[in-house]
């Protein structure tokens, strides 16, 4: 069974990886295991290669995973999803990144699964923390979009002398006139809310249970589902008791400081304010980046430079987080010594007592090792292992872009199909080891003869494809002749392997876009046909396709 990678190549990248890795082939309505790394055996306690998804797990779980694989294949690019059921007995959350690929007429998916329990726990802890503060410190009431009272907390009962059991389920129009007056201003405000509305607040006076009148800052937050407002969360914060407010703010600060301390053990952490000025970085982040806290705190994120975070990405993050939403993604950044590293990032907007965003909490996990493995795998997929030159798959991938540029500029693309003369004699006389090194030098000689924008790919044996870009039609013959002469001169200079001197020649078939064809395969066939005729005329001959 032909695959884009050999088992040995996959083992080289993933055998000792900490994360489970699966290389799957679509087989009808299921997926076959073509490769798994050693971590997978620990998880499943059985051999998976030779089986398929349906044979290795319960039908409901298999169905969900297949659905995700098919999504990745359909969109044709990386797709990430989280799974909380596969290892639920371990209370573990897993996140899987899927890379779809096609090879011949087969479709494959590379699945790399990582444990994101720590991230999930941090996100949940923050949301719980926010809920805890809002519910325990201030009076809170929840009403439906139809102005029915859904819930209220003990602080509301104590502050205003009402009883939860008597209020739950009552609509605004059912309240006594005196209470309608109390809620009138709030109701008028809420009636103006739309699905796009954000949280807002107003100052009002209310009578407390002890008969004193107090001033409150009242925050109104819409609760949305499927783009519609389903309810309103209303929080009262008393403004008359300055000491109480300070104490509660101090409590909030202490909780947040404790939260920061806990994060120090689990992740890389940075906190910056709304203007982008960094206010806190933890030891883990300092250790990874090589920067001292004094070098980062007080610095604006925009000043760090594009090597760390590009202006475009920074604006994207701000657009999401300033709406009060959590941003998640991966960022390639740079250490102080110039080394690059990758981090998986979660950025959470933090709210002050008035419900306004005042800081952003950035939680990062170092994923450099996994990204480096992915980059190696991508290079192996699109490059020849002997010469390190691009392969046919890379040339196919690039050709559409090259063609679009040629059309815009009214230029030709010239495809050269090169075949070394008498290469078989090298293998027969000196053996395959010298033959392999011969091919390496042969490919380098071609590459040295080309401009930076031209492409060369090894397509098999001693056969190479060259794509010449930016060829002006009126000078095309001179251009082609000049390149072929440079290639021949470079080959004629030759090289020495184990004391043996080589100065080979090469036959060349030529096809031109758009003169001889409109797509890559058509041009390759015609260049190959021209190469056949060139070889019939003798060594070192070039021939252009003609009808």
TrEMBL record:
SMART domains: GGDEF (SM00267), PAC (SM00086), PAS (SM00091). Gene3D superfamilies: 3.30.70.270, PAS domain (3.30.450.20). Pfam families: GGDEF, PAS_4, PAS_9. Residues 327-379 form the PAC domain. Residues 252-329 form the PAS domain. InterPro entries: Biofilm_reg_signaling (IPR052155), GGDEF_dom (IPR000160), Nucleotide_cyclase (IPR029787), PAC (IPR001610), PAS (IPR000014), PAS-assoc_C (IPR000700), PAS-like_dom_sf (IPR035965), PAS_4 (IPR013656). Residues 411-547 form the GGDEF domain. Transmembrane segments: none annotated. PANTHER family: BIOFILM ARCHITECTURE MAINTENANCE PROTEIN MBAA (PTHR44757:SF2), DIGUANYLATE CYCLASE DGCP (PTHR44757). This is Diguanylate cyclase.
């Amino acid at each position: 069974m032909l695959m884009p990678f050999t088992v040995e190549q996959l083992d080289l990248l993933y055998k000792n990886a900490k994360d489970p890795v699966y290389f799957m082939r679509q087989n009808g309505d299921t997926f076959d295991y073509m490769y798994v790394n050693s971590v997978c055996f620990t998880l499943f306690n059985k051999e998976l290669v030779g089986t398929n998804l349906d044979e290795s797990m319960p039908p409901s779980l298999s169905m969900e995973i297949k659905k995700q694989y098919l999504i990745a294949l359909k969109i044709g690019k990386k797709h990430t999803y989280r799974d909380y059921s596969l290892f639920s007995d371990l209370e573990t959350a897993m996140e899987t990144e899927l890379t779809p690929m096609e090879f011949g007429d087969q479709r494959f998916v590379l699945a790399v699964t990582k444990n994101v329990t720590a991230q999930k726990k941090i996100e949940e802890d923050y949301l719980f923390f926010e809920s805890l503060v809002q519910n325990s410190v201030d009076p809170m009431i929840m009403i439906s979009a139809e102005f029915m009272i859904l819930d209220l907390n003990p602080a509301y009962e104590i502050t205003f002398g009402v009883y939860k059991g008597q209020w739950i389920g009552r609509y605004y129009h059912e309240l006594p006139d005196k209470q309608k007056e109390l809620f009138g201003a709030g109701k008028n405000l809420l009636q103006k809310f739309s699905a796009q509305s954000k949280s807002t607040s107003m100052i009002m006076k209310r009578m407390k249970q002890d008969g004193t009148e107090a001033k409150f800052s009242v925050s109104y937050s819409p609760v949305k589902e499927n783009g519609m407002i389903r309810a309103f969360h209303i929080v009262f914060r008393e403004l008359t008791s300055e000491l109480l407010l300070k104490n509660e703010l101090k409590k909030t600060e202490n909780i947040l400081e404790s939260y920061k301390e806990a994060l120090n053990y689990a992740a890389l952490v940075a906190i910056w304010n709304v203007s982008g000025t960094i206010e806190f970085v933890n030891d883990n982040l300092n250790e990874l980046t090589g920067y001292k806290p004094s070098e980062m705190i007080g610095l604006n994120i925009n000043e760090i430079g594009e090597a760390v975070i590009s202006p475009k990405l920074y604006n994207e993050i701000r657009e999401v987080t300033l709406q009060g939403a959590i941003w998640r993604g991966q960022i390639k950044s740079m250490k102080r010594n110039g080394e690059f590293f990758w981090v998986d990032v979660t950025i959470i907007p933090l709210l002050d007592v008035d419900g306004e965003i005042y800081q952003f909490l950035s939680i990062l996990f170092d994923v450099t090792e996994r990204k480096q493995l992915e980059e190696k795998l991508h290079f192996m997929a699109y490059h020849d292992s002997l010469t390190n030159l691009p392969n046919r798959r890379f040339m196919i991938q690039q050709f559409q872009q090259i063609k679009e540029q040629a059309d815009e500029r009214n230029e030709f693309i010239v495809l050269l199909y090169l075949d070394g003369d008498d290469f078989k004699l090298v293998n027969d006389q000196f053996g395959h080891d010298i033959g392999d090194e011969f091919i390496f030098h042969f490919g380098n000689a071609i590459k040295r003869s080309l401009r930076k924008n031209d492409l060369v790919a090894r397509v098999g044996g001693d056969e190479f494809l060259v794509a010449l870009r930016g060829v002006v039609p009126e000078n095309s013959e001179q251009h082609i002749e000049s390149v072929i002469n440079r290639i021949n001169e470079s080959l004629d200079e030759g090289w020495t392997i184990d004391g043996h001197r080589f100065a080979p020649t090469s036959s060349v078939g030529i096809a031109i876009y758009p003169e001889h064809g409109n797509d890559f395969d058509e041009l390759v066939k015609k260049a190959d046909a021209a190469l056949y005729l060139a070889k019939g005329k003798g060594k070192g001959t070039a021939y252009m396709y003609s009808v």
